[in-house]
Amino acid sequence: MGEFSDFRSDTVTHPTEKMRQAMAEAIVGDDVLGDDPTVLKLEEMAAEITGKEAGLYCPTGTMANSIAVKAWTRELEEAIVEARSHIYNMESTHMTFISRVTPRPISSDRGAMPPDVVEQNIKKPSVHIPQTSLICVENSHNNWSGAVVPMDNLKALREIADRHDLKIHFDGARVFNACSASGISIKDYAAIGDSIMFCLSKGLSAPVGSVLLGPKDFIDYGRRLRKALGGGMRQVGVIAAPGIVALTEMRDRLHEDNTRAKRLAEKIAELPGISLDPGQVETNIIIFGFDHPKYTIPEFLSGLREEKVLALATTGGIRFVCHKDVNNDDMSRAVKAFQKLLT
Ligand code: TLP
Are the CB atoms for 143 and 84 separated by under 8 Å? Predict the structure, then answer.
């Protein structure tokens, strides 16, 4: 256990020893010229795992999502997004800033957008109205407390997209946590999207990077967009190397994070001021409502910090994220801090 028990995000996970070794030994080349063997290996491996034709290593999930939206849309078009989605709420408006398309937010049942409502919102263009060209889905769903979006719902959206000749982009920042919780394979999830993005830098514990996957011509164009956005990173095998370790060795342990989150949720759910249904904690993210006579959310978070426990305020309350670098001692410290402050 470190000085702080850091539940702010799974982005705080540190690279494993094997990742550090892989970084030190990485064979590199100029990736903008297409000859960094480590990056090529990572992109091929990610394509193979997801069943997509090609992959593109990106510095961040936000850039991968930005590239996907830009590649699938044109100006005067609209993209359907889930109302609490990361792509719509937490990526500094790249849809309007970079792609110059209008996001059309749809309310959902814990990340699952009702197919009939999605279909009603698909627009054919007129002199007044933008054309819908893209649907974005997210799974697991960060701001819905890491919910796993049901496969039936995703399949229904895929059918609608096919019927109306739309593309689907799948924000799978934490898709491997969803795989672990649902038992559904990554290939089955990836098949829902024309493109999919996943992050190496979250529960998989690589220090940086995300991979965007899709058809070869989409990825070729995406490579040009990545350069235009300043993401041509030269000898980037040094940071792609831990991504290979992440994909090879870290997927199988994500169930531990999911289980820990459920256990933590069960321990805090009954405390005064907290509204949380532990049954709804399916993966590694716990979001609970907070309304306590003694503290506002910022006051409670600083109380936790004094007890060496870190968490973040988010849509719908307070967020705790379980990951490889919080162990049972960190869990006990968190539960004790909750009990001390709230009872
Ligand atoms: N999410 C981060 C913060 O931005 C909130 C986190 O700590 O959870 N899609 C989803 C679903 C995400 O949760 C995130 C990051 C991203 C995309 C963007 O990834 P990065 O941070 O690599 O740009």
Answer: yes
